[in-house]
Amino acid sequence: MNPYVESVEPVWNNPQHVFVNDVMVEHFAKELTQDEFPLPNWREPIFPAKDDEQFIEFLGVSCAIDFCFTDFKTEKKFDVEYPKNSGKIWYGSDAMEASLMRALDQGIPVLDSIFLADTLDEKIAAQIFEPVTTPIPLFKERVENLKNVGLILTTSEIKSFAQLFEETDFRAFAKGGGICEVLPSLFSCYQDEMPWRGLILEFNKRAQLLSMIYYGRASDSGGALPLLKDPENIGPLADYQRYPRYCKC
Predict the structure, then answer these.
(1) CA distance 153 to 113
(2) What are phi and psi of 247, to 5 degrees?
(3) Beta-strand pair 199-202/193-196
(4) What pTM was estimated for this model as a whole?
(5) Which residues are paired to 247 by β-bridges?
(6) Exposed site from 33, 46, 51, 199, fewest CB < 10 Å?
(7) Looking at the DSSP assignment, which residues form a beta bridge with residue 99?
(8) Which residue, among 161, 169, 92, 84, has the nearest Cα to 127 in the 3D structure?
(9) What's the sign of the alpha-carbon dihedral 67, 224, 176, 188?
(10) Angle CA(1)–CA(193)–CA(57) in degrees, nearest 5?
(11) What is the pLDDT of residues 103-143, one digit of tens each?
């Protein structure tokens, strides 16, 4: 069972300004049954393609800053060229991941917890997230998130994201002890929640996103990465593109 679905259930049971057209939902569902949905393997060049162990750490870092990539004034998405001087432009979350891969290529240890906690600053981050035309929104909040990742991994009993997966027995949810539950309880930068009519809606989008992406890569790893034991419990993912203030960045 996914407790975050239960958390947001009051919203869709008590709408004020929207309604659901059940006929169109059924029509859309029938259309979806005609499509194929291959499971992504997440081996694009903006991810560590061959090193599955490095991929886990990359995923833990990247998902911590996976939010709001559209400039609120210009409506343009954050963009990055990668590889450098290749002419290949990535946008949005892809651009963020490309930034981290570019940093690794340049020798910037963005997956090292000590570096994130003690060395990373806004000057270095500006180099990491150098755009083509549109800067990454919420820049300072992302720096804080990355430093939070480093701080927790250097001061808690969990020293890596790989260890976190092992400690949670590769379960997304386990009555408080699953990956999607431990991440927001351990890392403040992974907490996604918002107030609504006196309630706190916990949806923790990025914790679930991390688990979802991991499962796709694990399924393509030939057994190198253990599969999650309950992938069916992940999602659907709620988002907050227009309301980043409710993301505890």
Answers:
(1) 6
(2) -90, 120
(3) antiparallel
(4) 0.90
(5) 192
(6) 33
(7) none
(8) 84
(9) negative
(10) 75
(11) 999 999 999 999 999 999 999 999 999 999 999 999 999 99
